[in-house]
Design a protein that fits this description.
This protein is mostly helical. The protein is built from 4 helices and no strands.
Length: about 70
């Protein structure tokens, strides 16, 4: 899977829209759109960082606002 595909896959697994995912990760919506469409290519470490963030939140059971999930 390419980098853009892995970012889209991570977002879809969360069940979030691009806007929600943008707010959650702090990545601008336009950047997410460009990455997912293949118009821009993020650095190779970006999907890993996003994945680590999501796994960490899952482990502690909280979202970025400190709300229990």
């Amino acid at each position: 899977m390419d980098i853009a595909g892995s970012i889209k896959d991570l977002r879809e697994r969360t069940g979030m829209s691009r806007k929600e995912f943008s707010n959650h990760t702090g990545i601008p919506v336009r950047t997410l759109e460009d990455w997912e469409a293949g118009r821009r290519t993020p650095s190779e470490y970006i999907p890993r960082l996003i994945s680590y963030q999501l796994k960490y939140e899952e482990l502690i059971g909280k979202d970025d606002q400190g709300q229990k999930i």
